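Category: protein sequence paired with discrete backbone structure
Discipline: computational structural biology
Format: plain text, a pair of labelled lines
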Amino acid sequence: MASKPDVTPAISRRNFRLIRIAYLEKATFGVLLDEGVPFCVTLERPWLENKRNVSCIPEGYYLGRRIQSPRFGDTFEIVEVPNRSHILFHKGNLADDTHGCVLVGEQYEPLGGENAVLASGKAFAEFKRRTDGIDNFFLRIESHKQGG
């Protein structure tokens, strides 16, 4: 009997890494790297035990998968997150914009008295340029380790 053909889409050998650099009471800030090259900053919710819509996701290894979001259009979902789904990369400025997802920006700066990322549209365009032509990528999320 012939084995079942593999219908899983090929996974790009592309590697992205999100390094979290600051955990604050209301937000988590990071840097997103493509094959080791930093290209944008990130904003997520604070760590609140992986609670849906209010917490950043746990550190670990994930798969980014291209999807068509009804709200955000062509983007990537971080899949295989324990007890979570619909974790997307998208535009936004404040932690309240994340809903548990990952926002991308070009710089950190206060906005309306809140910690924020700015130039999110520009950063998201760069993210889309870097993911053009691929449907999946590997993603590692980790905290910055102090040297010493």
Q: What stands out?
A: The chain has one domain: 15-143. The helical segments are 120-130.
